[in-house]
From TrEMBL:
Signal sequence segment: none
Name of the protein described by the UniProt record: Uncharacterized protein
Disordered: region residues: 291-339
GO cellular component: nucleus
Biased composition (Polar residues): 300-311, 329-339
Species assigned in the record: Phlebiopsis gigantea (strain 11061_1 CR5-6) (White-rot fungus)
Residues annotated as domain HTH myb-type: 94-147
Length: 339
DNA sequence: CCAGTATATAGTAAACGCCG
DNA sequence: CGGCGTTTACTATATACTGG
């Protein structure tokens, strides 16, 4: 069904409601990508086609001609709808993808193309030499309204303005401070001086975190690293690309944004020598021991720089699954520090 | 104890991506 | 195609380390 019927999103949603259909959405993991590559290669060999033939098949506008191809490829990934595979593969195989930074000449070319053609991104793509979605992103995120846009450090006033706007949109509506927000409109209400991504990152990583920590910036501690490693470990994923970062924090350990946690994970991962050639499992084995056996420097000189140490006990005893012998040692370490 | 240097972190920007 | 989210790269600054 998923692999054979082309359903758009609303049709899918309806099937979920009426038929109890289950399907997977969201970012494709590294494992799924590998499965897709294998399936495509198998198809190519079985039909004795060239890479070029495959590319033609992927990008042909004649949906009927590629029907068997898309069905077979889709069946190689679990619970993905054929429509999602179609879009994903076309992006992945796009000849103009991944060209890196835009140079000023390209920006000029894009401005000119938009002025001439309006927002016809496929046509613009041909003129500029970047994929249609790259052109659209570059335009809407960076070029449009660029004269208004500010970059660099935020002033106190800007931070207060953002806090006020977000508070109006969340707390004053009876919502959580870190609930979903339409960042496009926040950006608009900031007078376009800051873009949607600027506003979002500034809020989730900095201002919101600071408020949750009673007004002062929290510092990343060894305990946080410990919790992060063990949370990831408890997910039992095969690869870190399968982690849903939004689901990591819980009610007692929620001061760090998903974005921050991902970044922390990345640097932690890179700190392991030879991580590039390791499986996720091997990496976790190393990190589990590394983060469990390296206690924070005793009566840490670190704690002096920590303006306002938050209560560590609440955080620790909130992780019932993760205590065991390691958990209890973490409690001891941290309880002696603040107070 | 200090200066000089290596390393970690925070803040920012932007590429990359999925959904309806 | 417009909407928004996620992941990674870059860089300035803070912190740790080292030899003198």
């Amino acid at each position: 069904m998923l692999a054979n019927v082309w359903m758009n999103a609303s049709k899918l949603a309806e099937m979920v409601r009426t038929q109890g259909l289950v399907y997977k959405k969201g970012k494709f993991s590294a494992i799924e990508d590998a499965q897709l590559r294998t399936a495509i290669e198998n198809f190519r060999v079985a039909k004795s086609m060239t890479d070029n033939d495959i590319a033609n098949l992927i990008f042909t506008k004649d949906r009927g001609r590629g029907e068997a191809f898309w069905q077979e490829v889709t069946s190689s990934v679990h619970l993905r709808p054929i429509t999602a595979v179609y879009h994903h593969v076309r992006r992945l195989w796009h000849p103009m993808r991944g060209q890196g930074k835009w140079v000023p000449a390209e920006d000029d070319s894009l401005r000119e193309a938009v002025a001439y053609l309006g927002q016809q991104w496929e046509k613009i793509s041909e003129r500029v030499g970047r994929s249609a979605s790259d052109c659209r992103d570059r335009w809407r995120n960076h070029l449009e309204g660029q004269d208004l846009r500010k970059s660099g450090h935020w002033t106190k006033e800007e931070e207060e303005e953002l806090t006020r706007i977000v508070t109006e949109l969340t707390v004053l509506q009876g919502k959580e401070m870190d609930s979903e927000i339409f960042w496009g409109s926040v950006s608009h209400r900031m007078g376009g001086r800051r873009g949607r991504q600027q506003c979002r990152i500034k809020w989730t990583d900095s201002l919101c975190t600071q408020i949750k920590n009673e007004g002062s910036k929290p510092r990343w501690s060894q305990l946080d690293a410990y919790i992060l490693v063990h949370k990831i470990d408890s997910l039992k994923v095969n690869d870190d690309s399968e982690i849903d970062w939004k689901k990591l924090p819980d009610e007692h350990w929620n001061i760090w944004s998903a974005h921050t946690l991902q970044r922390r994970w990345l640097t932690m991962k890179r700190s392991v020598k030879g991580y590039e050639d390791m499986s996720h499992g091997e990496l976790m084995d190393i990190l589990r021991t590394k983060k469990a056996t390296t206690p924070p420097p005793q009566n840490a000189p670190r704690s002096r720089t920590q303006k306002q140490p938050r209560s560590a006990e609440t955080i620790v005893d909130s992780d019932p699954e993760e205590e065991e012998e390691l958990g209890s040692s973490a409690v001891q370490r941290t309880q002696s520090a603040p107070a």
